[in-house]
Design goal:
globular, two-stranded antiparallel sheet, alpha+beta, five-stranded mixed sheet, 7 strands, Aminopeptidase, binds coenzyme A
């Protein structure tokens, strides 16, 4: 099943937050709804969703397209960034993660972005293996951060 990649629309809000929760991407200090709202204030078109096609059941009822994947890209003028890459657990291994990354990279490249960076939590070696298959490598850097706004 191929997915259709498009920019986020307001109607996706709850579904995307639930997708992130089901994919283990949310943390108590990271309110997904606030993260969505912040992104909508800045480069909203780089918040992408992957929608499964509408389908028709045996009884003739139609299911509308359902968001099964997401990625939040950003470009700060120096590096492109990837956050919230997520594929519905029921739809993994179907190429959607790769499709979402390719869609994000295409948009970043169109903005003139020379390199994409991303961060992976240390307890997520599966994601590292996935990104390495897509051509990413571990940079010799220490990632540092400091919280400015607490969502908790
Ligand atoms: C990581 C994730 C996005 C991968 O999505 P996916 O749709 O299952 O990945 P794809 O089907 O596009 O796989 C692309 C390639 O990566 C490989 N791959 C996918 N998951 C992998 C894993 N856990 N370990 C090793 N390889 C993996 C696939 O075999 C495939 O290889 P191929 O093209 O040679 O066949 C998905 O597992 C996910 O949402 N995980 C939870 C959220 C997460 O960790 N996000 C990243 C945060 S940094």
């Amino acid at each position: 099943m191929a997915i259709h990649v498009r920019s986020f629309t307001p109607g996706d809000r709850t579904r995307v937050a639930r997708l992130w929760e089901s994919c283990g991407l949310t943390r108590p200090w990271n309110d997904p709804y606030r993260d969505i709202d912040r992104k909508l204030d800045r480069d909203a078109e780089l918040l992408l969703v992957g929608e499964a096609p509408a389908s028709e059941a045996a009884d003739g009822t139609t299911t509308t397209g359902r968001v099964v994947a997401s990625v939040m890209a950003g470009y700060d003028g120096h590096r492109g960034w990837i956050n919230y890459l997520a594929v519905d657990p029921d739809h993994r291994g179907e190429g959607h993660g790769r499709t979402m990354m390719e869609a994000a990279e295409t948009r970043l490249l169109a903005l003139g972005c020379p390199k994409v960076n991303l961060q992976v939590r240390t307890d997520n070696p599966d994601a590292v293996a996935f990104y390495e298959l897509l051509g990413y490598s571990v940079d010799p850097v220490v990632s540092m951060g400091r919280r400015l706004i607490s969502d908790g």
